[in-house]
Design a protein that fits this description.
Elements lengths: L19 H16 L3 H13 L5 H13 L3 H14 L4 H13 L3 H14 L4 H13 L3 H14 L4 H13 L3 H14 L4 H13 L3 H13 L5 H17 L3 H23 L5 H13 L19 E6 L6 H9 L4 E5 L5 H7 L5 H5 L3 H17 L8 E5 L7 H7 L4 E6 L2 H10 L6 H4 L4 H15 L9 E6 H6 L1 H12 L14 H4 L6 H4 L22 H10 L6
Parallel strand pairs: 1-3, 1-4, 2-3, 4-5
Length: 556
């Protein structure tokens, strides 16, 4: 990148003797091309020099940049890693490596590189902007805002940082602020894809769907937008069409979005075994294992917590609303969607390892509990003296592990009309991972929901954990009564602060797709939304009907 200078020229000589003077001349020629702004010529010369056996971080960086422009990020990564091995202190190459890893959605690795970059060059905006993007992707909304603001302080027209700040404002439902920031971005670079989508979201929220629709059609037709950006634009177009009650057109846009995302992410998440097959195999192990195998002793709260609660259910079932309400209580410490069980799942995370978990000894279980609480604290939670709420909707599939490690923990299980859950899961654009990949088709979402609910229904049978089902519709319609019931279950007193949960959205930096909706407080938006989509959902309604009946939701 132009803002970072490569270190002094150092030659890596291969087994054959090389002409050092000729190598230096080649590198100077590449430098001259770069200085003159001729990136194409510089990349051509870099590739030719590498082919002749000359190795230098600048050459690897240039050749990798060409591969990235062709969307060949994995191949580019190989070159960048080789360059980094040659020159680990080359900050420009480290920045390029971080950007590559970010594009590959290896955010934690990218963040580590950006941390080195900003430490070495604290007054260069590009490093802070890139670091902010990785923090945002990892769900650290407050940290991302700090990084973006630092970049803008250093370089007021840094487009990446401005767009990042616009994204954070849009997430929080502050669409006027998001619009102002995004307009600064498109003034600097018209048709900047992420900024265009932020402007379209602002158009939607401000009752100007026609303007948003026109923006998105232009973006979708723009060949400069990559496949993921075009797919996400289709998804937002679906929201805008839905707001105009154009249900058939909206469903087509959602389907196009998800098909595009499925294709883009197929190399990473499309192969077997899928998360759905994992869920079904886990359920099969539980079904053939005696219930007593999942019980244990010695699982009282660690980290001096006053209580321990797992909040689970399924994506879009109301877990984020519940967590935000609970986090507003002064005696609660909540953690949002972190992989707190990572140490345990590394050993017992696959279905074939669950029989070993069932017979694990006291020492092994104690070690894994300690690892869990260490990870909780590393994630920034401070449970001492408080009821600790570990929220993750898909920890439902980790119930065997939770029951074995934490027999004294309580479970809050979020429940919502199954048809609304599956439709909303299909319509929303989540950060992609193996589990979210299952939600890109209605059939996948319905099958995944069915498997998760089968596991959740084993609470109180196979898993002897104290649990309370919280019905999303009831919480919205009769907030105080349901909130008081939850407090009684957790051993807390109801407090007025829980009513004002939306005031803390900014403070807590909610990272899920629900954040903007929560910022508006309680509202019935989305309840019964499936009815408008009953026809396109027809193929999955039979899968969901048993749960509709079991959970006593109306049939129509």
């Amino acid at each position: 990148m132009a803002e970072f200078r490569s270190g002094p020229i150092k030659l890596s000589l291969g087994a054959r003797p090389r002409d050092a003077q000729a190598d230096r001349e080649q590198l100077r020629a590449v430098h001259e091309a770069l200085r003159g702004g001729d990136i194409v010529a510089a990349a051509d010369m870099a590739e030719a020099a590498l082919a002749r056996g000359l190795e230098h971080p600048m050459l690897f960086n240039l050749a990798a940049g060409r591969l990235e422009r062709e969307d060949r990020f994995e191949e580019a990564l190989v070159l960048l890693l080789r360059g980094h091995d040659l020159a680990p202190d080359d900050v420009g190459l480290r920045q390029a490596l971080g950007l590559n890893l970010h594009r590959l959605e290896r955010y934690a690795e990218a963040l580590a590189h950006f941390g080195v970059v900003v430490a070495a060059h604290p007054d260069v905006a590009a490093g802070h902007a890139a670091r902010g993007a990785s923090l945002e992707a990892l769900g650290d909304i407050q940290g991302a805002g700090t990084a973006y603001n630092r970049a803008v302080d250093l370089q007021p027209q840094n487009l990446a940082a401005l767009c990042g700040l616009a994204s954070l404002a849009s997430r929080r439902g502050r669409h006027a602020e998001a619009r102002a920031l995004a307009e600064r971005v498109v003034q600097g670079q018209p048709d900047y894809p992420d900024a265009v989508m932020i402007l379209a979201q602002a158009d939607l929220s401000e009752g100007r769907p026609g303007e948003g629709e026109a923006r998105l059609h232009r973006l979708i037709a723009d060949e400069r937008a990559n496949a993921v950006q075009q797919a996400l634009a289709q998804g937002l177009l679906g929201d805008i069409l839905d707001a105009q009650d154009k249900v058939i057109e909206a469903f087509k846009a959602y389907s196009t979005c998800n098909a595009g995302l499925a294709k883009a992410y197929a190399p990473r998440f499309g192969a077997s075994p899928t998360t759905l097959s994992y869920a079904r195999e886990t359920l099969a192990v539980v079904q053939r294992t005696p219930a007593a195998a999942w019980s244990a002793k010695g699982g009282s709260p660690g980290a001096d917590a006053a209580g321990h609660v797992f909040l689970m259910g399924f994506p879009r079932s109301g877990t984020t609303l519940l967590e935000q309400v609970l986090a507003s209580h002064p005696d609660v410490e909540a953690l949002e969607e972190r992989d707190t069980l990572a140490d345990a799942t590394a050993i017992y995370g696959r279905p074939e390892t669950l029989p070993d978990l069932a017979t694990a000894g006291v020492t092994e279980l104690a070690r894994l509990r300690e690892a869990y609480w260490r990870r909780v604290e590393r994630e920034g939670a401070h449970p001492a003296g408080k009821v600790f709420v570990d929220k993750h909707p898909l920890k439902t599939l980790r119930l065997p592990l939770i029951a074995k490690l934490f027999p004294d923990a309580k479970v809050l299980f979020a429940r919502r009309d199954p048809r609304d859950v599956v439709l909303s899961s299909f319509r929303r654009r989540f950060g992609m991972n193996a589990a979210m990949y299952q939600l890109l088709t209605l059939e996948g979402a319905a099958g995944f929901y069915d498997a998760a609910m089968q596991m959740g229904e084993r609470l109180g049978r196979d898993f002897a954990l104290a649990s309370l089902v919280v019905r999303h519709e009831s919480l919205v319609e009769d907030f105080e009564s349901v909130a008081r019931e939850i407090c009684a279950f957790l051993g807390l007193s109801f407090t007025d602060a829980m009513r004002d949960f939306s005031d803390r959205i900014d403070e807590r930096g909610v990272a899920t797709p629900s954040a903007a909706q929560l910022a508006r407080g309680l509202n019935p938006e989305g309840i019964g939304a499936w009815r408008r989509y009953a026809e396109p959902m027809r193929s999955v309604l039979p899968t969901l009907q048993p749960w509709v009946e079991r959970f006593a939701y109306p049939n129509a």
